[in-house]
């Protein structure tokens, strides 16, 4: 993969992670979904007008744009496993930023993802 390909792959992961964190922040402000279907339109409106949710969705669009450039410059079989980095980063940052409790079995799963990334990255 070229340097440009690696750069766009890194941008894809970064936008994906930031987008997930922004959507979570927005949903913390919006609150949990309603128990009654009649309240769903109001909830959806509040969620999709929250600035953090909107920014998070914009990051998702940016990630998709970067991804198209990345896979145009690399084999999908090489690039796609690196999307696992988003899993590692989101799990780590959700504990750090939001104070979420992350049980050991999730950390073990992330460790397995990291091992998989090392194996997949080898030529």
Short structural description:
With 123 residues, the chain is mostly helical.
Explain what you see.
The protein is mainly alpha-helical and 123 residues long. It has one domain. It is 78% helix and 0% strand. It has helices spanning 3-30, 40-48, 51-72, 76-79, 84-98, 104-121. α1 packs antiparallel against α3 and α1 packs parallel to α5 (84-98). The radius of gyration is 17 Å and the shape is globular. The relative contact order is 0.16.
Which terms would index this structure?
single chain; about 120 residues; mainly alpha; about 80% helix; globular
**Total helix count?**
6
SSE pattern: HHHHHH
SS-based structural class? mainly alpha
Biggest sheet, in brief? none
Beta-strand share of residues: under 5%
Q: Tell me the span between the first and last alpha carbons.
A: 11 Å
Tell how many strands the DSSP assignment holds.
Answer: 0
Percent helix, as a range, is over 70%
Number of domains: 1
Radius of gyration: 17 Å
Give the mean pLDDT. 93
Low-confidence stretches: none
Shape designation: globular
List the helices and strands and how they pair.
Blueprint: H1 3-30, H2 40-48, H3 51-72, H4 76-79, H5 84-98, H6 104-121
């Amino acid at each position: 993969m070229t340097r440009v390909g690696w750069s766009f792959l890194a941008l894809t992961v970064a936008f994906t992670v930031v987008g997930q964190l922004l959507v979570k922040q927005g949903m913390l402000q919006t609150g949990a979904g309603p128990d009654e279907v009649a309240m769903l339109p109001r909830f959806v409106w509040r969620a999709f007008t929250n600035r953090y949710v909107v920014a998070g969705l914009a990051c998702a669009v940016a990630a998709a744009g970067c991804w198209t450039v990345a896979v145009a410059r690399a084999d999908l079989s090489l690039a796609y496993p690196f999307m696992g980095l988003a899993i590692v980063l989101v799990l780590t940052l959700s504990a750090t930023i939001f104070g979420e409790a992350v049980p050991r079995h999730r950390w073990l799963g992330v460790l397995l993802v990291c091992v998989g990334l090392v194996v997949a990255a080898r030529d």
